[in-house]
């Protein structure tokens, strides 16, 4: 946004300079037209006085003035050419600045869209994270209840000492395996004796 503002200020300065240069060009062209009219008038006057010998000094002065005016006209035409060149350069600069402003605006819009997309993704991820946390808490709670029931069922069997401290999963598994093995041995004994 700062770059766009800076480019727009440069563009306004260049456009102002371009308008000023064009105004100077118009003034210069008007002055040249006036000088051309003066030259034409003096040339006409010079032709009418040419035949009269008594105006020889005036004719010489007029010739000098005409020569001087021609030099001034040549100088002004040179200045006008320079002004035209400056105007062309300013127009090119204005076009470049306009293109830069347009490019900067496009970049800004792209960055805004990318930011909005990133923000939307972040919100989606936060929502999924919350859902995952809730699901994890639910699973953890169910697991703890299930584990508690297993421990209760395992250590409520006859001949099993109740635990004095918190059990690890391996200890619970060993206790269950022991009960299963004992039941299998008991089943084998009954089977050997023919008892169903």
TrEMBL record:
<protein>
    <submittedName>
        <fullName>CCD27 protein</fullName>
    </submittedName>
</protein>
<feature type="coiled-coil region">
    <location>
        <begin position="52"/>
        <end position="128"/>
    </location>
</feature>
<keyword id="KW-0175">Coiled coil</keyword>
<dbReference type="InterPro" id="IPR052642">
    <property type="entry name" value="CC-FHA_domain"/>
</dbReference>
